[in-house]
């Protein structure tokens, strides 16, 4: 699969990860599934709903966040196509926790953010795209294309 998004959307995703550092930041991607590709048309940065002491290595989006994202997507003639989140001081690849909580048919963008452990010190290093296998055993990397 290929995930396509504008440079501005990628910058917004990475900026959200930097702003959340040293915690994980997360949000949704709205767009269209187009055969073997996903076209991202909007990003919705959200608050990490995880309890404060666990936000440094986990994120949570609430059921209400999902509902609001679905409504916003429908109003724009789009679909909820994926989730993005950051990994503070860790690689941009899915963790076992990510696999256990992933939804099928979603694109997952993960940004590695590196810093000094202090708020405001994070710098996005790389963003990679992933998709959960149908049998939920692992993720496969998608191609990330910016326009």
Key traits:
single chain, 7 strands, alpha/beta, Cytidine Deaminase, domain 2, 7-stranded mixed beta barrel, 147 residues
Walk across the major sheet and give the strand order: 1-3-2-4-5-6-7
CATH architecture: 3-Layer(aba) Sandwich
The sequence of SSEs as H and E is: EHEEHEHEEE
Low-confidence stretches: none
CATH topology: Cytidine Deaminase, domain 2
Q: Give the CA-CA distance, first to last residue.
A: 16 Å
- Mean pLDDT score, rounded? 96
What structural class do helix, strand and pairing data support? Answer: alpha/beta
* Helicity level: 10-25%
SS element count, helices: 3
| Total domains | 1
β content, as a range?
35-45%
Radius of gyration: 14 Å
Q: Please state the overall shape, judged from the principal axes of the Cα atoms.
A: globular
The major β-sheet equals: 7 strands, mixed, barrel
Q: Any idea of the CATH class?
A: Alpha Beta
Q: What would CATH call the homologous superfamily?
A: Cytidine Deaminase, domain 2
How many strand segments?
Answer: 7
